[in-house]
Amino acid sequence: MPAHVAVITDSTACLPEHLAAQWGVAVVQVQLQVGATMDDEHRIGRQDLIDAMKAGTPVTTAPPDTGAFFWAFQEAASSGASSVVSIHLSGRMSATVQAAREAAQQVRIPVHVLDSQTTGMSLGFAAISAARAAGAGAQARRVIDAAEQRFRTSTEFIYVDTLEYLRRGGRIGGAQAWIGTKFAIKPVLTVRGGEVAPLARVPGARRAISKMTDLAIAAAGSQPVDIAVTRFGSDERFAELSADLVKRIPNVHESHLVEASAIIGAHVGPGALGITVSPVGG
Fold it and tell me: What are phi and psi of 48, to 5 degrees?
């Protein structure tokens, strides 16, 4: 079997299973604790999580155990990989990157651990770009470059019904100043410098989502982009928002409808929506 570069990410990349399988991206699960139950996030149902959050049950998140990364890296080596590029959510949001770096010291092939300084499909698109480069036979440096180009140029736009869940989880970043604003004022957020940052405050949910859409369209401009629309919880606006973006952005390469990682959902809360704009190429 020819040597190749393996690409690994974590579950906050929100990669649909078919995309991860298509590009051969291994996904290490971040952990979620709901009440007294701690498990890999994919083993905890989203509706169960949403019900628990609404009921006020304590919900916390934790990085994968170092051993989970060790075995992911070992499996890559056993499959014939010459090296690994492991791409993860912002180190300012989670100790996941640190766990990966600790595990990387214990395997016999080179493991390059990247802090994407972001999360969600900005991370997911970076993992896909890296895997595409690896699949084309690129060496590790080119695979790293492909990932870095993606996560440095991608933008997250996030609508939340309330900032309360971000506050509870300690991930509120620069939006802290908006705590206590009137209930009818809805925030639009982004990820900047590796943490959640405020973009706009808009009266009412519909106007806030419209504002988020306009910001995403402006960020896309006329360049070729991939887009993803992400939700946490049932939302009738989900498919409509994606169709509107495809119609109004002139050069959409790929578009995806994505269910948010339960880890992200635990911080943004039920009813959250997100848009990822990720320029293609470079």
Answer: -60, -40
Cα–Cα dist 8/116, whole Å: 13
Which of helix, strand or coil describes residue 27?
strand
Please state the separation of Cα 131 from the chain's center in Å.
Answer: 16
pLDDT number for residue 168? 65
> 27 and 15 in contact (C-beta within 8 Å)?
yes
| Cα separation, 169 vs 186, whole angstroms | 19
- Using CA atoms, how far apart are residues 25 and 44, in angstroms rounded to an integer? 22
- What amino acid occupies position 215? L
What φ, ψ does residue 130 adopt, rounded to 5°? -65, -45
Q: Phi, psi at residue 39, to the nearest 5°?
A: -160, 170
The whole model's pTM is what?
Answer: 0.92
pLDDT tens, position by position, 21-59: 999 999 999 999 999 999 999 999 888 999 999 898 999
Q: From the CB of residue 281, how many other CB atoms can be counted at a distance below 10 Å?
A: 11
Q: What is the radius of gyration, based on Cα positions, of the chain?
A: 18
Amino acid making up residue 59: V
Mark 48-83 as b/e (b = at least 16 C-beta within 10 Å): ebbebbeeeeebebbbbebebbbebbeebbeeebeb
* Closest by Cα among 2, 19, 12, 3 to 257: 19
What is the spatial distance between Cα 11 and Cα 27, in angstroms, rounded to a whole number?
A: 6
The SS3 assignment for 280 reads coil
Beta carbons of 147 and 85 less than 8 angstroms apart: yes
pLDDT digits (tens, 9 = 90+) for 92-138: 999 999 999 999 999 999 999 999 999 999 999 999 999 999 999 99
Answer for the pair 227, 255: CB distance below 8 angstroms, yes or no. yes
